[in-house]
Amino acid sequence: AVIASLDSAGKASNLLVWDIGSNQASRTLPLPPVPGLTDVITYLRVSREDQYVVAGFPNSASGMATYLVYDLGAPVGSPPLQVDFDAVVHCTELGAGEAVTGTAKGELLVWALATGQVERPICLQGGGPAHQSAIKAVSWSADGRVFASGGADFVVHVWDMTSETLTFALEGHTDD
User: Where do the WD repeat units fall (predicted)?
Assistant: First the structure.
């Protein structure tokens, strides 16, 4: 498990990798000074293979979602990789070595946790973006085979992640 620790002002200062069995921190990951990190961390996840920790927050300086990616296999003290997307912070799901982020433009972008580089988009048949407007929610199944994305276009798309193709388009919801 990973938890964020707070300083005396109530701001996140470190991430603690917590060993559940011994009920103690096994590693401390310091948060670097990042312009725009004026609030608390609002997104905190561990990748499927337990190699990466990703902390995210809405960046007040850039207006983007900023993610700090820590590689737990790197030497202690290694700085995190900073990745920014025009997205809602919680619209990212982690897989094994990669993440998928839903953007404000309706794109689903697959990016490498090791480099922060976008590897490919997940598109509708014909190459269009995953949604016609901003993506507001994403979820990846525990087995990694199914991915769902919900947009401000009032459509939930269900994707087969083995082929990265659309399986279902569920229309009819009327609330964000």
Answer: 128-169
For residue 7, tell me if it sits in a domain: no
Alpha helices of the chain — where are they, by DSSP H? none
φ, ψ of residue 16 to 5 degrees: the values are -110, 125
- Closest by CA to 50, choosing from 31, 72, 29, is 72
Instruction: Say if CB 98 and CB 119 are below 8 A apart.
Output: yes
Task: Please check whether residue 102 is in contact with residue 140, taking contact to mean a CB–CB distance below 8 angstroms.
Answer: no
Whether residue 86 lies inside any domain: the answer is: yes
pTM of the model: 0.89
pLDDT digits (tens, 9 = 90+) for 131-175: 999 999 999 999 999 999 999 999 999 999 999 999 999 987 776
**Which domain range does residue 100 map to?**
31-171
Alpha carbon distance 172, 156 (integer Å): 9
CA dist 99 and 8 (Å) reads 33
Exposure string for 16-45, b = 16+ CB within 10 A, e = fewer: bbeeeeeeebeeebebeeeeebeeebebbb
Give Cα 43 to chain centroid, integer Å: 7
Q: Is residue 176 part of a domain?
A: no
